[in-house]
UniProtKB/TrEMBL annotation:
CDD domains according to UniProt: AKR_Tas-like
GO MF terms, alphabetically ordered: oxidoreductase activity
Origin: domain of life: Bacteria
Transmembrane annotation, as ranges: none
Taxonomic lineage from the root: Bacteria, Pseudomonadati, Pseudomonadota, Betaproteobacteria, Burkholderiales
UniProt protein name: Aldo/keto reductase
C-alpha cells in the first residue's frame, strides 16, 4: 500500500488507518494484538488512539486502549519504529469527568495528558497528537447549530497551541492535529502558528461517510487551501453502512448481538441512532447491492477514492473485519453510481451530522 504525506509534514502514512477505540471494551487484549499484527502484515502503518478510549467511554476503561497498544509495543521490539502513532487529548471534562477536573483544557492539562499517554503507550514520542474536540463550544457530536449563548471557553486557542508547541519542543510529540473541528478552528490554529512561529496543524480528524458529508460544506475548501489533511472517521457510520442493521429497528433488535449499536444503548441515543440515519443507510445499502457491491464495499470505496480524504480510519472488532475492509482498497465507483449516491444525499442530506 502506498504512503502519503500528512499536511505539510514529513509523516508518511498509509491511506488506511487502524482505529482502536474498541480495544478494551468490545475487544480483548489478545484480539487487539492480533488485529494490530494483521494490520501491520497488510501494510497499514498508521494507528490512531486516544486517552479517553475505550468507547463507549467509562471510568473503568479509561486509558485501556493505549495500555493495550503499549503492551503490544513492549511484546514486539522494533514494531514501534514501523508505525506512525496518533493519539488525542480529550476536550473539556463535561463529557469525560474522570479524565480531569474543571471545565476547560489548560496548558497544564494538555501536557499532563500527553505524558500519561506516553506512559500507557510505552513510547518516548507520539507522532501525531490531536485535540480530540474543541475546548470552545462548537456544533459537534450530533449538534446541528452553533449557539453563542452556550459559549463557556476558558482556555484560548493560543494557550492550547503553546502547550502543544512545548510538547513538540521537548520531543514528546512530532506533529499536532485537531479533531471534530470547524473552519474557524482550523483557520485560527493555522493563523496563530504562522504569525508566532508555532507548530502548524497537519490534519483534522472529523466524521466523513455517506451519512455525514458535512465536511464538503466548507471544511474541504478550508483544509485544501491551508494544506491540512482529513483523517476520516466512522466511514461505515457506526456499522449502519455495513448492512448489519438493515433488518432491525432503531432499538437494535434483530441486529447481531455483538454489534455496537445493539450492545450499547448510549450510542443509540447519539447521531447514529436517529431514525433518519437508520432509514437513509438502508437506501445506500440497497443501492450498493443493486450495483453488485456489498454495503461495506460501496461505503468504504466512497471514502477511499474521495480527493478530500487523506486516510480513512477503520474501527474493527475482529481480524476478519479488518481483512474485509482492507480488501476494498482499489475498488472504484462508476460515475453513474456516484451520481445515484449524490441523488440520495440531495434528498436526505446528512442525517448523522
Amino acid at each position: 500500500m502506498h504512503q502519503i504525506s500528512l499536511g505539510q509534514s514529513d509523516l508518511k502514512v498509509t491511506p488506511i488507518c487502524l482505529g482502536t477505540m474498541t480495544f478494551g471494551e468490545q475487544v480483548s487484549q489478545a484480539t487487539s494484538h492480533a488485529i494490530l499484527d494483521r494490520a501491520l502484515e497488510r501494510g497499514v502503518n498508521f494507528i490512531d488512539t486516544a486517552e479517553m478510549y475505550a468507547v463507549p467511554t467509562r471510568a473503568e476503561t479509561f486509558g485501556a486502549t493505549e495500555t493495550y497498544i503499549g503492551n503490544w509495543f513492549a511484546a514486539n521490539p522494533g514494531v514501534r519504529e514501523r508505525v506512525v502513532l496518533a493519539s488525542k487529548v480529550a476536550g473539556p471534562s463535561r463529557a469525560t469527568p474522570w479524565v480531569r477536573e474543571g471545565a476547560g483544557m489548560t496548558a497544564a492539562d494538555i501536557v499532563a495528558s500527553c505524558e500519561a499517554s506516553l506512559r500507557r503507550l510505552r513510547t518516548d514520542v507520539i507522532d501525531l497528537y490531536q485535540i480530540h474536540w474543541p475546548e470552545r463550544h462548537v456544533p459537534a457530536f450530533g449538534q446541528m447549530y452553533y449557539q453563542p449563548e452556550k459559549e463557556s471557553s476558558q482556555t484560548p486557542i493560543l494557550e492550547q497551541l503553546q502547550a502543544l508547541a512545548r510538547l513538540v519542543r521537548e520531543g514528546k510529540v512530532r506533529y499536532i492535529g485537531l479533531s471534530n473541528e470547524t473552519p474557524y478552528g482550523v483557520h485560527e490554529f493555522v493563523r496563530l502558528a504562522e504569525q508566532l512561529g508555532l507548530p502548524r496543524v497537519v490534519s483534522v480528524q472529523n466524521p466523513y461517510s455517506l451519512l455525514n458529508r458535512s465536511w464538503e460544506n466548507a471544511m474541504d475548501e478550508t483544509c485544501h487551501r491551508l494544506g491540512v489533511s482529513l483523517l476520516a472517521y466512522s466511514p461505515l457510520g457506526y456499522g449502519l453502512l455495513s448492512g448489519k442493521y438493515d433488518h432491525s429497528g432503531t432499538t437494535g433488535v434483530g441486529a447481531p448481538a455483538t454489534a455496537r449499536l445493539t450492545m450499547f444503548e448510549s450510542m443509540r441515543k447519539q447521531r447514529w441512532g436517529r431514525r433518519e440515519s437508520w432509514e437513509t443507510s438502508k437506501l445506500y445499502n440497497q443501492l450498493a447491492r443493486d450495483n453488485g457491491l456489498t454495503p461495506t464495499q460501496m461505503a468504504l470505496a466512497f471514502c477511499y477514492t474521495k480527493w478530500q480524504v487523506a486516510s480513512t480510519i477503520l474501527g474493527v472488532t475482529t481480524v476478519e473485519q479488518l481483512d474485509e475492509d482492507i480488501d476494498v482498497w482499489g475498488t472504484t465507483l462508476s460515475a453513474e453510481l456516484l451520481g445515484e449516491i449524490d441523488a440520495i444525499r440531495k434528498q436526505y442530506r446528512d442525517p448523522a451530522q
